[in-house]
Every structure is written in C-alpha cells, then in structure tokens.
Prior knowledge:
The structure is a single chain. The protein has about 475 residues and is an alpha/beta fold. It is about 25% helix and about 20% strand. The longest helix is centred in the middle third of the chain and has 16 residues, at about 215-230. The radius of gyration is 23 Å and the shape is globular.
Amino acid sequence: xxxxxxxxxxxxxxxxxxxxxxxxxxxxxxxxxxxxxxxxxxxxxxxxxxxxxxxxxxxxxxxxxxxxxxxxxxxxxxxxxxxxxxxxxxxxxxxxxxxxxxxxxxxxxxxxxxxxxxxxxxxxxxxxxxxxxxxxxxxxxxxxxxxxxxxxxxxxxxxxxxxxxxxxxxxxxxxxxxxxxxxxxxxxxxxxxxxxxxxxxxxxxxxxxxxxxxxxxxxxxxxxxxxxxxxxxxxxxxxxxxxxxxxxxxxxxxxxxxxxxxxxxxxxxxxxxxxxxxxxxxxxxxxxxxxxxxxxxxxxxxxxxxxxxxxxxxxxxxxxxxxxxxxxxxxxxxxxxxxxxxxxxxxxxxxxxxxxxxxxxxxxxxxxxxxxxxxxxxxxxxxxxxxxxxxxxxxxxxxxxxxxxxxxxxxxxxxxxxxxxxxxxxxxxxxxxxxxxxxxxxxxxxxxxxxxxxxxxxxxxxxxxxxxxxxxxxxxxxxxxx
Length: 482
C-alpha cells in the first residue's frame, strides 16, 4: 500500500529514454524510505533532495538554455529541478501572463477552442523529436532526457492551479480545468511520459486545495488520470493499490504559513510525501516543517518546496544568509529536501524562477553556492540519521528565522546545533553526554564551507554558554564524545 510500506524500486534513471507513448511504463527511480522520513534511490540509498526552481523552463528556454541551467546546477550538487508545464510564461514590469503561451520554438501546449485552451486536446503533431520538435511536448521530452543524462530528477507540476484550476490569482486567473479536464490531462501526461523514471508528479501549483471553493476532487482526479495513463488501469484516489507505485506524487500549496499539503491530502494513498511553501514567511520555516514531521498515521516525508527566493522584491531582500537559514532550519526540523530559487537581483536581472530577463547572470549567487556547502555538510554528518531535539538549547534559543535548532545522530551520538546568527546560547548537555568526561567541539561555517580547529571541553556542568567565532554570519556547532 503506497505511503504505508516501503517500496524498493529496481528501476534506474531512464537515461536517454524517448517518452514514446507505446513504451512500457517504468516505476520511479525514487521511493519512500523504510522509516518514511526521506526518499531513496533504486539502490535504497538516501536521496538528498537539493532542488532548483525554474517554473517556466518548458515555456521560456531553448534546448541550449536548458543545458546551461542543468549543467550549472549539477556542478553545484543540485539533483532536482521543479518546473511547471502549463504556467503562463510570466513576464515582469508589469507582471503579465499568457494563457496557452508559445514556447521558445513557437509551439503551444493545447489546441484552442472558443479562444481558450482545451485540456482535453493537447496539441500533438507527428514526426517531431526532442532535438527537432514539432510540438510543445517534444520539448518537454528534451528536458526530461537532458535531466536524465545528468542523473537529475524533474519535479513536474502539470498546471499552475492557482491560476487555471482554482483561479484565485486576480487579475491573471482563468478557470480552464474542470474535474474531467484534470483527469484527461493527467491521463495524457501519464501515457506520454510513462517511460521516464526521473519524474516526480507535483499537483497543485501555489494554491490551497480549498481556495475559492472545494477543488480537492480536481487534484485527486488528476492523480487518478496520471496512473491510468501510465498503467492503463483505473483506480480511485482513496483506493490502496500497488498501481500507485508507478508514480511518485506530492502537492504544492501556497505560501500561507502552516497550511501545507498535509492539510488536505496527508492520508490519501496517492500522496507519497508532503510539500511546504513558506515563501516570504521566513519566520515560519522551522514550524512548518516540524508540523509535518510530527504527523503520524501515516508518517510521511516532507519537503520544503518553495521557501523565500534569493534576491530583491518590494520591501524585502533575501540574501545568501537567509537562504542558508531556511535550508538548515528545514533539514534540522526533519525535512527530506529543500528547493532553492532566485527572484530579481540588485541589477534588475531575473526573476530566475521564471526564468526571465538575463537570468543567467543570477546562476552563481551566494545562496546557490551555499547550497553546495550545506549538502556536503549534511551528507558528511549522517543526515539520514538526524533526529530533531529540543532539550539541548536551554536558553537564548531565538525565534522565527533566528531560532537556533539542534539534532542528534542516532549512530554516532553527535549533536549538531545551528546558529542562524552570531548570538550566544546556553546549552544543556546533561541528558546526552552525562557519561562522558569530555567532548570534542568544532565549528563549521556554512557560508565558506570551512571548519574551525577542534578543541576539547570537559563536561562538568549541565549548562554551557557558547557563541560562534567572531564575524561568522551563521554557524553550526558540532559536539561529539571523545
């Protein structure tokens, strides 16, 4: 039963697969771990979700630009990209969207009827290839194949629900998809792309499932349609079936604090893991992840799918330090992954998440580079074994984006404490290091990736006051028994 028992998948990433609708379906390259806290690959190795956001990749980018973006992200350690197939080709100054836009090669996703795109008629033309596309979907094939060659996952949002399903994004909304239209479109996507193992299906699209009315049936219908397209079989959204194992699925909500995908779909069999968007609410990151981490019956992984973006927006600047805080607070709270994105830089380039307007100038911002350090640190310190703890930071914990957070590793008895700024805290080590005469202490700088020298500290009192090294903007304290 999906979501309730571990499924070890033997299919490897389908390098160079064609996406031919007549091909045999394959199971996803990723599945949920045995303890239901993170994702694993086909070898049952933990998958450290380090994602990038280019919602409009299939609308804006040429093949050459797709390769530039993927190569840059791969070099930094990113292993996943989030895209939306029907997004609206957002432009800026002023903000505007195009319903059923043409992609970089002049191809539209849907046939139009009465001036509107028809979800039941994806525009498919014979004779094209990913390298020489005849239609929009040939270019999507190119994106999936290019990612697969790099052993990268594509998290695919079929449609931006806020705009075209719930239609709660004035003045840019247009209700295009009915319940039956969602099923039909889902079936097309499942059939068309069933030969790819490097897809995660992400329903929703920056929207609460009940915003503007009850739209839960729309998204459940799409989940059913995707499985029907992949397998040729019909199952209902609330039916436990091994057929769900042919797709890995989640739901992308909006940025309302603490209203995660788990609010509507946590117990649904099609829903493999939860996803969170906090967007501008940087003070809510730890709380949002912890809320999902604490859920039981069933336990499911959760991913920070859309935090605040690096760059500038009206009345708010998000720098590298803010990206590190969001990422590390997410992982220290128990997240299975984190997705980075960029908005507009100080020179007016971007937004990267479109991607639009000199977006290549934003590929190497501080926050993106910091993600490389964060991934290395987490993997070097047994990230899959982390357990959030709340009794180590005795006082001066801070709150919101300045909250200090701690984890323990089950195997090595290592304690890690993240300091999101350069303030001190009182730590109580009695519950975890009472039997030790002394412990080894070391600081890590996530901005530079550098470690300070180790030192030894006697465990003679239950409370100790510690502070990061001078001039470090944030830091991780590493404590281990001698």
